[in-house]
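Exercise 7b. Backbone tokens:
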């Protein structure tokens, strides 16, 4: 499997998106989001998505160069329509519009509909906490992509609907970014592209039987991804169900519906909290930093070298991959090379490690 320096993949992805019709600033933003996901260890939200996004442009399902349309605005609420622009572009525009509202009101909530897949939610959490905000976010699949069945069911009814919660501390932010299913669909796609089985406990086939074959998600009759929670999967499914309801119901996007055809899209809900408007920023930072330090410094089990907080694994992986390069599976790399050939873009040379 080839390995590349992050900056070379960033330039390559941006060039592919420009060749696909995106303005330079949008191409750079989307490329940065995808390569950033690879750097953080979330290959499911990384360059594996390039082919999917460009196909959506070719099919007329995504539109480069459109503005963010503000449908409704109050002192603490924004309702936006992405006009089927790229998700990373429109979601960052929404976040930037929310920040001054949160500074003024203490709380600001925003929704976004009619936009492409916005990528890794931790990307927005990191941007929000860098400005001192606490952050909550979720998305649904805009009514499409129902890969998760309810416990006891055999047909998908909701998406993998993630939940992201983040707070700033005096050091690194604590960022919890999880799917409400056992795994993201993109992680299954990575295994599918590699031609390897998924771990046990991820998937059920169309009859509701456990399987390690990633292909069950991509051929008829389709299988499903298990909800988070193992024997108590009703908890994960319940979280995913409520995330779907919030993302669709508040944004004006559809909640998951059986009649919707597949599309790369998200309905989005963001919430920003300014600690200064509550008990004060100093109190907030002192307390959350003390708690984070207490968790890290607790007794460790045999063989454990460090206690991790949410966000630590991504920081460690980002440091490692920044130094050693990003490895792409042969299936994903082959797809990118084929797209590059069609677009007249030269792929980067491999960086060995």
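Sequence design result:
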């Amino acid at each position: 499997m080839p390995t590349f320096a992050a900056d070379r993949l960033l330039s390559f992805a941006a060039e592919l998106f420009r060749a696909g019709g995106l303005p330079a600033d949008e191409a750079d933003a989307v490329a940065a989001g995808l390569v950033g996901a690879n750097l953080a260890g979330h290959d499911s939200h990384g360059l594996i998505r390039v082919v999917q996004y460009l196909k959506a442009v070719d099919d007329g399902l995504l539109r480069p160069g459109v503005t963010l349309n503000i449908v409704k605005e109050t002192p603490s609420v924004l309702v936006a329509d992405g006009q089927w622009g790229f998700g990373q572009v429109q979601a960052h525009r929404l976040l930037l519009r929310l920040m001054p509202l949160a500074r003024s009101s203490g709380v600001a909530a925003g929704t976004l509909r009619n936009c492409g897949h916005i990528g890794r939610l931790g990307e927005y959490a990191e941007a929000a906490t860098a400005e001192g905000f606490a952050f909550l976010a979720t998305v649904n699949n805009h009514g499409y992509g129902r890969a998760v069945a309810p416990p006891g069911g055999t047909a998908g009814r909701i998406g993998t609907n993630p939940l992201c919660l983040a707070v700033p501390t005096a050091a690194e932010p604590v960022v919890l970014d999880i799917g409400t299913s056992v795994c993201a669909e993109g992680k299954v796609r990575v295994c599918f592209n590699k031609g390897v089985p998924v771990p046990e406990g991820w998937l059920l086939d169309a009859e509701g039987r456990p399987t390690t074959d990633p292909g069950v998600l991509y051929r008829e009759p389709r299988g499903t991804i298990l909800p988070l929670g193992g024997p108590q999967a009703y908890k994960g499914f319940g979280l995913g169900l409520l995330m779907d309801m919030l993302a669709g119901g508040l944004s004006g996007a559809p909640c998951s519906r059986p009649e919707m055809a597949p599309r790369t899209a998200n309905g989005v809900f963001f919430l920003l909290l300014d600690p200064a408007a509550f008990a004060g920023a100093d109190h907030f930072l002192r307390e959350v930093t003390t708690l984070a330090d207490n968790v890290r410094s607790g007794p460790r089990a045999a063989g454990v070298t460090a206690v991790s907080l949410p966000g630590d694994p991504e920081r460690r992986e980002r440091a490692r991959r920044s130094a050693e390069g990003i490895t792409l599976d042969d299936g994903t790399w082959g797809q990118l090379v084929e797209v590059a050939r069609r677009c007249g873009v030269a792929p980067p040379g491999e960086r060995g490690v």
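Instructor comment: The longest strand covers residues 77-85. DSSP finds ten helices and twelve strands in the chain.
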